[in-house]
Design goal:
Blueprint: E1 4-8, H1 19-30, E2 34-38, H2 42-61, H3 71-80, H4 83-86, H5 97-112, E3 124-129, H6 135-148, E4 155-159, H7 160-164, H8 166-173, E5 218-221, H9 236-239, H10 250-260, E6 265-268, H11 279-288, E7 296-298, H12 302-311, H13 316-333, H14 337-349, H15 360-365, H16 367-377, E8 382-384, E9 387-389, H17 400-406, E10 414-415, H18 424-436, E11 441-448, H19 454-471, E12 474-481, H20 502-513, H21 523-530, H22 534-542, H23 545-549, H24 551-556, H25 568-577, H26 580-590, H27 597-602, H28 605-615, H29 618-623, H30 628-638, H31 643-652
Parallel strand pairs: 1-2, 1-3, 3-4, 5-6, 6-9, 10-11, 11-12
Antiparallel strand pairs: 7-8
Helix pairs in contact: 2-3, 2-5, 3-5, 12-13, 25-28, 26-28, 30-31
């Protein structure tokens, strides 16, 4: 007998889909179970389930009416209990209106009185976890899962956080998490020897949800597990304590292609692939999967894949949604009016104008009409494929031979770890060896807030900029704040390193805000963003956050033609006019990043004037009509170059 399996990912923002749950989905589908994946608002999930139960009951009472037409109104009526939504359901069309109304009222109360808690629907629930600082939302999801599973022994919590903070999770939720990877037999079912970690991923579950992962259209996988290092800031020794130096890639890629179609890129999650003694074999595997230099990707016919999987009942919920949106997108692509109208008529004929009324049978029955159109309008443009060792490679393990092998595949970007300024020599060697072999695109994460000093981050960023200039290459740097994986600060993002403070952390985040967290090549941008020298970098770290975020505007206010009292120049005059005693007094408060009106009142003279730049919410004044800074920002946005014109307009303003 098939089981009902619910897979949950907490509703945090993340770039990559839950690989563990995708493998678990494959496992349960292989057993013939009914699998549902959800990521989103948990209340919405409950209401959706109750709404569907309600519709099923209404169909049972009177199937002469397409109750799915009213799905949105039924959902809103159950959610809000408001009469305006009930009136849209048109129960008076049924000869069984009294019964229909009774059941609508029943399901409305079923939700509001939380009767659903008495009737859990799922035979097994699996919850994945990610970073430890997602503690609150993860615990909330586990507690929710406890209400959904029939037997708490069948609630499985796994993943990164569950491995690192297993005892903490158990203490709070009473659920003992699974630690590590799913690399042993009989983990989910006694007597089943299938190794879940070796299964191909079930991509279909990603089409069950509204959330869109930023990194898609890729094969995800591993060619190794673990790492030979034991870095104190890293979770890998806990997550994958044993180094496995070769995992066959091709069978998994072939399995994904067969069911879900080809993917453009190959994203490998290996933690230290260069440590493998089978590295050349890994490169051969990558090539055999179609990722050779110059290889191109042409998007497969997604409609054909969706219909095939609907016919095979692979994941009806996912492929009904996917096929509906494919047809909807096709309607938008067609520009000829007659063809557009014809498509609309066919969609109406088959009940495909709204997702709520789409059925598996009607989608399959519409195949003969839509298939030629999808073939005609499919994307025929090819694009270069890329391989991405997403977790980075170890600069200490670079050799000429390994770089030569890397240069034989379309790796882009090559991510090389640069966690400390102490690694500069190895890092530089790795970059130069790679460039000599023809690799031009690089990326790295720059760890900060660990044992480093702020100036170490500046030096690493500057070094990358200089390498880009010298070697005519591209390096994208991503400053990455260190968070402890256990202990007092593991449940949040509040940790401050020995040489850092809250103000410096916020300043770095403000500086990289305009580039979405990454810093590319270009000396002029870098020196403007981070300072021309180490002294200017520290000056930026001390500067009020709004002055950093609106750098050019506050410098514009400093101009002689404007002489506005709130400006970068005036802040600098205040800051540098303080003697050592006054500066220390001020910096204690500034570095806490919590200067308020009380602090301002308790200070005097020059210190008070300096603190005033930190206690006022200038960002609010810039974006709120009626404030002087708002009007000035409008002038600046019109033309920041013509300052005299701005000055003239400014004199005419009435504040």
């Amino acid at each position: 007998m098939s089981r009902n399996i619910l897979l949950l990912e907490p509703n945090y923002k993340n770039k990559y889909p839950p690989i563990g749950l995708m493998k678990i989905a494959t496992y349960y589908r292989n057993q013939g179970d009914n699998v549902v994946f959800y990521k989103g608002d948990l209340k919405v999930f409950i209401i959706n389930q109750i709404t569907q139960s309600c519709i099923n009951k209404l169909i049972e009472i009177d199937n002469s009416i397409n109750w799915n037409e009213y799905k949105v109104s039924i959902f809103e009526y159950i959610r809000t209990r408001k009469k305006q939504h009930y009136q849209k359901i048109e129960t008076d069309l049924s000869n069984y209106q009294i019964l229909i109304d009774l059941w609508l009222n029943y399901y409305k109360n079923f939700y509001f009185k939380k009767e659903y808690l008495k009737f859990p629907q799922w035979d097994r629930v699996c919850v994945t976890t990610l970073f430890t600082f997602y503690w609150d939302i993860t615990i909330e999801t586990i507690e929710f899962a406890k209400t959904q599973v029939k037997d708490l022994n069948n609630l499985l919590v796994g993943g990164i956080m569950s491995t690192i903070l297993a005892d903490d999770i158990e203490a709070v939720t009473g659920i003992k998490p699974y630690k590590g990877t799913l690399c042993l037999p009989e983990i989910l079912d006694k007597g089943n020897d299938e190794i879940i970690d070796e299964l191909p991923l079930d991509y279909s579950i990603l089409d069950e949800i509204d959330y869109k992962y930023p990194e898609t259209n890729a094969f995800y996988g591993y060619t190794t597990r673990g790492c030979i290092r034991n870095c104190p800031f890293c979770a890998v020794p806990t997550l994958e304590p044993n180094y496995e130096d070769y995992i066959p890639l091709k069978p998994r890629i072939d399995g994904i292609r067969e069911k879900f179609g080809d993917q453009k890129d190959l994203l490998l999650m290996d933690n230290n692939v260069l440590a493998s003694e089978n590295f050349s074999k890994i490169i051969d595997d990558i090539k055999s999967c179609g990722f050779t230099l110059g290889s191109k990707f042409t998007e497969p016919n997604l409609f054909e894949i969706s219909i095939k999987n609907l016919r095979n009942s692979l994941n009806d919920n996912a492929y009904i949604r996917k096929t509906y949106f494919l047809i909807k997108d096709l309607s938008n692509k067609v520009k000829v009016l007659d063809a557009k109208q014809d498509i609309y008529k066919k969609r109406k004929e088959y009940g495909l104008l709204k997702l709520e009324t789409c059925t598996k049978d009607n989608l399959i029955n519409s195949y003969d009409y839509f298939a030629p159109l999808f073939e005609k309008y499919k994307n025929k443009v090819s694009s270069l494929r890329h391989v991405d060792f997403n977790q980075g490679v170890d600069s200490r393990l670079f050799t000429y031979e390994k770089v030569r092998l890397l240069s034989d595949i379309p790796v882009r970007p090559l991510r090389i770890a640069f966690d400390s300024i102490k690694e500069l020599r190895n890092y530089e060697k790795a970059i130069r060896l790679s460039v000599d072999s023809g690799i031009k695109d690089f990326s790295n994460y720059l760890l900060y807030n660990f044992k480093d000093k702020p100036i170490d981050l500046y030096q690493r960023l500057k070094f990358n900029i200089e390498l880009c200039e010298e070697l005519n290459i591209s390096i994208y740097s991503f400053p990455m704040k260190y968070h402890p994986i256990n202990g007092k600060f593991s449940h949040n993002r509040d940790y401050i390193g020995k040489h850092w403070n809250r103000k410096y952390i916020r300043a770095v985040q403000a500086i990289v805000n305009s580039t979405k967290g990454k810093i590319g090549r270009g000396k002029s941008f870098f020196y403007k963003a981070f300072g021309n020298c180490e002294e200017e970098f520290y000056e930026l770290l001390e500067m009020p956050e709004t002055f950093i975020l609106y750098r050019f505007f506050f410098e514009w206010l400093s101009n002689e033609e404007i002489k506005f009292p709130i400006s970068t120049m005036r802040w600098k005059e205040c800051f540098y006019s303080l003697n050592d005693y006054e500066k220390n007094e001020a910096l204690i408060l500034i570095h806490s990043n919590k200067v308020d009106k009380v602090d301002l009142k308790n200070s005097k003279g020059k210190v008070q004037e300096l603190l005033s730049f930190y206690s006022t919410n200038y960002r609010k004044e810039i974006i709120t009509p009626g404030y002087e800074l708002y009007e000035l920002k409008k002038l600046y946005d019109e033309n920041p170059i013509f300052i005299l014109k701005g000055r003239k307009k400014m004199n005419n303003l009435k504040f």
